[in-house]
Amino acid sequence: MKLKRQLKKLFSRFTLVGLTIILIFLCSVALIVGAVYFALLIFNHYQPDYTRYVYYGLAFFAWLVQLIAVLNVVNRDMLPESKLPWIICIVTLNVLGVAIYVVFAHNRITHFQQKRYRLLYEHSKPFLNGALPKDYLVDTLKSRADVSEALQVSSPTAVAYINTKTKYFPSGESFFESLLQDLEDAEKYIFLEFFIIAKGEMWSRILEVLKRKAKAGVDVRVMYDDIGSMSRVHVGYYKTLRKMGIKCVKFRPFVPVVTNVHNFRDHRKIVVIDGKIGYTGGINLGDEYINKLHLHGHWKDSAVRLEGEGVKNFILLFLGMYNLQKRSDEDFAKFIPEYEAFENEGIVQVYGTGPRPIYERQIGEDVFLNILGSAKNYVYITTPYLIIDYRLREALCLAAQRGVDVRIVTPKIPDKKIVFALTRSNYMALIKAGVKIYEYVPGFIHAKNFLCDDEIGVVGTINLDYRSLMHHYEDAVLMFKTKALEEMRADFEETFALSELQTKESAKRNVIFRWILEIAKVFAPLF
Q1: Residue 260 gets which letter from DSSP?
Q2: Using CA atoms, how far apart are residues 516 and 510, in angstroms rounded to an integer?
Q3: Residue with more model confidence, 5 or 120
Q4: Model's pTM, two decimal places?
Q5: What is the spatial distance between Cα 394 and Cα 391, in angstroms, rounded to a whole number?
Q6: How far is 161 from 69, CA to CA, in rounded Å?
Q7: Is 489 exposed, middle or buried (0-12, 13-18, 19+ CB in 10 A)?
Q8: Orientation of helix 13-46 relative to helix 80-104, angle to 10°
Q9: Beta strand 378-382 pairing with 405-411
Q10: Cis peptide bond N-terminal to 357, omega within 30
């Protein structure tokens, strides 16, 4: 069985496509080097007296190109951590490094796509009514109001709402049963947007409901990420779903070309049912997320369910991305229901994040930084990966040094060994500053949660790593004084009891291994 699984991975579409990209890149480099070498041979044969001047000219040209590329890096609006590896690449690899920089360092989001995003944002504007006024936020949240206001300034669609019920799910199993029931109750439409769809028991049971609902006239739409689902479903799976009456699109279908556009994946997990119920969290539609498949011990994940007006931005996030892939325009108004007034339970803000220039700031990281800056008593965090930039590391350390109880839970059993090694390489600096780091002993923790002082919480898809914070399209819910926060607190206490506290001694690594990891961390922002 293990051999069969390894052979399947070896000959999977993901592996073959990756090898194709490497082959194309190597061939491109070989052609460039070969052409230059052949030109020099010919010139040397016919013009022997001037060969040295040609070499001098080429050397000067190469130096000039390097200088221009380095100045371009220095003057770009990007994190310092991202500038350093590109400068190293350019300086050490010469013209080849410049070529790699030109191909991979620039966001290949076309002007057409940027125009489409702006147009879809304009479609969303009329439905951003009902936002809470600043005075209400200040009266209700006091000093915490700044966290909410800052989010809405950097992301105008991230409107704060009341009239929303919240329910937190501490496991994929509890989320799954609730989701199935809500899908069964759908009357008008169902929207699903996931990074991974994988054939198995979880997806089969969901698909059975979706087929019945589509046949009954419910508008069922599914969007999945092509790379995320590459080894889980076949290349034309979206066509299979369409034949079942389900409107399905793949996010950014993979094309084997050498470009960094493949980094910009749709890592969101969004469910919207009739515009009144919405879900998000770390859970994808695969059996490991409900522990029907044990790849890395017990899989610990989480999700949150919203019911009410706070769901509105889930609708807009989904429709924006769906219509972008379809290259279509449609009236969003027909998907926005009338919302009932609930007993005030707290405030919620649903927000999306993504790469520049679509999003002008790293919104996910900004929210975390603002929470850490507002913390008074504690901040509890769960994340599968801990590969953070200088801003976030210093914010964690400063919070701990001023007496805040900062705790981070990471996996004990990793899903990616290199990424896990990089995660552990960040332990020592944080532990020295007073941050408490735990590893979840039963297996792999995939939940992406922030909880602060029982008053502020975040549940979503955002990991504490460069891919989530810089490259991926993500989503999350920022909550203030909601019922879900109480349920999150209980889950954190149970998780700490199942986790192992790391110490300076346990965080020590072999000197050579540590040097290798430190070098790898320099290039982490590029991947």
Answers
A1: G
A2: 10
A3: 120
A4: 0.88
A5: 5
A6: 46
A7: middle
A8: 70
A9: parallel
A10: yes
pLDDT, residue 55, reads: 65
Instruction: Confirm if 369 and 392 have CB atoms less than 8 A apart.
Output: yes
- Strand 378-382 and strand 449-452: the pairing is antiparallel
User: DSSP secondary structure string, 315-346?
Assistant: HHHHHHHHHHHHT----GGGG----PPPPP--
Question: In what order do the strands lie in the sheet containing 160-161?
Answer: 160-161, 347-353, 474-480, 456-460, 449-452, 378-382, 405-411, 436-440, 499-501
Alpha-helical regions (H) of 107-249 = 111-124, 134-141, 145-154, 172-184, 201-215, 237-243
Closest CA to 190 of 304, 353, 311, 301: 311
Residue type, 317: L
Q: Which residues are CB-contacts of 364 (< 8 A; sequence separation ≥ 6)? A: 353, 460, 462, 468, 469, 474, 476
Residues of the chain above pLDDT 70, percent: 86
Exposure pattern of 419-443 as b/e (b: 16+ CB <10 Å)? bbebbbbbbbebbebbbbbbbbebb
> How many other β-carbons are positioned within 10 Å of the β-carbon of residue 217?
10
Structure tokens belonging to residue 58: 């080429």
> Residue 409, Cα to own-chain centre: how many angstroms?
18
Are residues 238 and 244 in contact, defined by beta-carbon separation less than 8 angstroms? no
Q: Which helix (H) or strand (E) holds 477?
A: strand 474-480
Q: How confident is the model at residue 107 (pLDDT cuts 50, 70, 90)?
A: low
Per-residue pLDDT, 475: 97
Rank 161-165, 219-223, 345-349 by mean pLDDT and report only the highest.
Answer: 219-223
Q: Return the structure tokens found at 191.
A: 């929207």
- Of the two residues 198 and 21, the one the predictor is more confident about is 198
Coil, helix or strand at residue 3: helix
Alpha-carbon gap, residue 444 to 288, rounded angstroms: 10
- Quick check: 406 and 376 in contact, CB under 8 A? no
Q: In terms of pLDDT, which residue wins out, 87 or 186?
A: 186
Strands in 303-308's sheet, in edge-to-edge order, are 164-169, 303-308, 277-281, 270-273, 189-194, 219-225, 247-251
Within a 10 A sphere around the Cβ of 58, how many other Cβ atoms? 14
pLDDT at 377: 97
Contact 77, 69 (CB under 8 A): no
